[in-house]
Amino acid sequence: MRVPLSWLREFVDVALSPEELADRLTLAGLEVSAIDYVGVEPTPGSVWAPDLNAPTPPQYIPWDRERILVGELLEVRQHPNADRLTIPVVGYGQGRSIEVVTGAPNIRVGMAGQKVALALSGARLIDGHSATRQWVILKPSTLRGVRSEGMVCSELELGLSDEHEGILFLPDAAVPGTPLADYLGDIVLDIELTLNLARALSILGVAREVAALTGAELHLPAITLHAAGPSVEGRLQVTIEDPVQCPRFTAGLLEGVRIGISPLWLQRRLLLAGMRPISNIVDVSNYVMLELGQPTHTFDADKVVDRHLIVRQARSGEKLQTLDGKVHELFPDRTVVADPRGPLSIAGVMGGSSSEVSEATTNVLLEAALWNPGSIRKTAQALKLPSEASRRFERGVDPQLPPLVQRRCLQLMHDIAGGVVAQGMVDVWPHPWEPRRLELPQAEVRRLLGLDLSAAQIADLLRPLGFECEVGVDSVLVEVPSYRLDVTISADLVEEVARIYGYHNIPSTRLSDELPPQFIDEDLLTERLIKDTLVACELNEAISYSVTRLETVATFTGVPPEPAVYLHLENPLTPEHSVMRRAILPELLTILTTNLRERPRVALFELGRVFYPGDGLLPDEPRRLAIVMAGQREPISWHNAAPPNIDFFDLKGVLDALFRRLNLGEVEWAPAFDPSFHPGRSAELRALVVGDGASEPAVLGIAGELHPATRERLGIESDRVCAAELDLDALIHLYAPGDFAPVLRQPATYQDIAVIVAVEVPAERVRAAIAANAGPFLERIELFDLYTGAPIPSGQRSLAFRMTFRAPDRTLEDAEVSKVRKKIGKRLQNDFGATIRA
After folding, report:
1. pLDDT at residue number 54
2. What is the pLDDT of residues 81-102, one digit of tens each?
3. pLDDT tens digits, residue range 188-215?
């Protein structure tokens, strides 16, 4: 919300400096993000001051009080050597005048008496002929043989807007010689408002806050509406078919208007507030919305059939061209304002072009209504039509404002555009607003704020905000004003007490109670352990969107997914994020694809939730761990100019390290048959779960290299991409904190065993059989050699394992270990038909 200080001062006397006011508002919850100084100098030393020496000028520039003044055209002559140039003689008070040369199309020969913005030599302006905003110091110049001592300025050169078609004309009341900063200068507070501060989306709303914070008196605008036309009774009709969507609708009528340009003061305030002037009728509508907080809409009354407005839900197949020129298809969940012929506007969002006020309009029908906030929010998002009006309606508007806004708009329209105001207004209000009453005990203020305030003191803090208070013995009965829709419970009142009392005035105290017992979240600790382990394996954590699109999933799987198994968002922010993900890998691989274009190695992991339709109202949200790796195994260096790329065994090493850290025990790597993965370089991971005297494998997930077709669909140029997606809930459930054991002092004894088995026998099964028969002193076993070829028979391969034995209390003898080796050999011969190599 942009708040010009001159406008704010019409509602409340501001004795503070702009910078002090900004600090006070920020401390009260209305965060001032910036202060724009429009033609005036900031307070010296202010932290809010813009850098006037920056390469790019700030949005507004200070106007030199000695060199940028109000001027008056004394005469305008034709330039003797150029048809498109004129020579205005400009007076600027005390008998002073200069000649300037200009090509402005709105300066014509013979003009006199018009007030203009005059810049004298040495003034600092914005270069109106530069493609970018650049400073320029005005100097005397000679144009086609005529000396120009200054310049009559446009809005662009003064930094007011980008308008450069003609020079700026000032109202007749402007006094020549007055510094322009005194006449047009202003200061604008740019306030960032959270959703609960809808009451401050107007000059009046901010003024209420300032009055409450400073103790200054609040001045409401004087409305003196002269309604001399015939009554609206029988000439306007309003029908509300759904009072839930439209709690209140008012309509007024102004006839015989003249559409034209708004006066300068009105245009200036709209520009300072961040809105573009359009025409006098539309500008008044926007002006009152900014002033009082109630959006309105104007119809060309002659384009409304029977002057009958109908508030209803849209019908299937209806379309409406809005004021921005776009045609929107309407659905039954959209509220529209229509006439008997069809829709005229999308309620609370944007009007239609068929009934807009144009240059030919003479009769204006004015709407000031209330709308269901949820419906407005949904419609604006669905149609991608955010507007200043919808911004206010979707937060809630004062239910008592519409009649006041009607009178204010009609008064200003009559004063600016002429015409006759019809007597009375149509006010359809099916369910009038009832004030809310809340009881606020002193004890509640003490409990939440730690302030020992009496009931009378609490009431004194609330009354400046407009709350009606009845002081009791130990509580306050509070009647909430209609513009405070955000106050619904006593805690909301406590917040208001804190704001006005001043957060900075609440004393700091030590905790006077015992700390509650600390409950350790074991799942969270295990998640951190997993993250720490993967980071130690040189992976980086990524966080992808929980929402995705079906096309991304199809790119990964190679087949169109079934939409019915996905959770769809009713109002997605973008088409790219319309369904909840069922797996993390598709989005994570998209991130990997992008990163591989910029760096030679990418290794990422993510812990997050996936979403499945549940049996009840809420979906199932299991947790997953996803890993992606691709690119060079190690950096290029002088001793390794072409390092190999990451492959299956790099991923396996990372997962083995993770499983050891989680103390999962034996994890089986079984062949996987997922079409997105390489059939010979992927595995289904299973962990042995023991319970109730039985054991069964628990599927942890899948890991391996992507299928070449998957890489091609993703657009990854790397020849190998490793990926894994595991059941994080299962990993956390299976995690068993390990017991620490002393480091054994006895030396280890090593034995190698090489066996010849059929190639169909997995090495893991052989290793498991060795471990099961090696006895209690086996410390480690690893596969260190795999060989096929002569003299190994066809269809068989040689597997060589190294076994490490160690006893805790003595040094093992070779004969003792050799006996174990022979036992293992016999078991392998019986189980696999293996041949033990010498």
Report:
1. 59
2. 998 999 999 999 989 999 999 9
3. 999 999 888 999 999 999 999 999 999 9
Which residues in 63-84 are b (16+ Cβ under 10 Å) and which e?
Answer: bbbebbbbbbbebbeebeeeee
Instruction: Please compute, for residue 54, the number of CA atoms within 13 A of its CA located in the half-sphere on the CB side.
Output: 11
With bands split at pLDDT 50, 70 and 90, how would you rate the model's confidence at 184?
A: confident
According to DSSP, the β-strands at 229-231 and 420-423 are parallel
Encode pLDDT of 583-621 as tens digits: 999 999 999 999 999 899 999 999 999 999 988 888 999
CA 197 to CA 392: how far, in whole Å? 10
Q: Residue 692 above 60 pLDDT?
A: no
DSSP state, residue 33: E
Q: What is the mean pLDDT of the chain?
A: 90
CB atoms within 10 A of CB 340: 11
**Torsional sign, CA 767, 768, 769, 775:** positive
CB atoms within 10 A of CB 511: 6
Name the residue among 188, 156, 148, 172 with its Cα closest to residue 70: 172
- Classified as helix, coil or strand, 36 is strand
Q: What is the CA radius of gyration of the chain?
A: 39
CA dihedral 752, 758, 760, 763 (to 10 degrees): 0
Cis amide bond preceding 791, omega within 30:
yes
Q: What's residue 176's pLDDT?
A: 93
Give the largest Cα separation in the chain, rounded: 123
Write out pLDDT tens, residues 138-167.
999 998 899 998 999 998 888 887 778 889
Residues 6+ apart with CB under 8 A from 469: 458, 459, 462, 463, 476, 477, 478, 479
Phi, psi (deg, nearest 5) at residue 90: -115, 125
Alpha-carbon 103 to chain mean position: 45
pLDDT band, residue 689 (cuts 50/70/90): low
Q: What is the DSSP string of 448-500?
A: HH-----HHHHHHHHGGGT-EEEE-SSEEEEEEPTT-TT--SHHHHHHHHHHH
Which single residue is written with the structure tokens 């008044």? 284
Residues 136 and 132: their CA atoms lie apart, in Å, by 12
Q: Is 764 exposed, middle or buried (0-12, 13-18, 19+ CB in 10 A)?
A: middle
SS3 182: helix
Helix (H, G, I), strand (E, B) or coil at 831: helix
Statement: residue 693 has pLDDT above 90: no
Q: Looking at this protein, which amino acid is placed at residue 291?
A: E
Write out the E strands in 528-676. 540-541, 547-548, 579-580, 601-609, 623-631, 667-671
**Alpha-helix runs per DSSP H in 352-400:** 373-383, 388-393
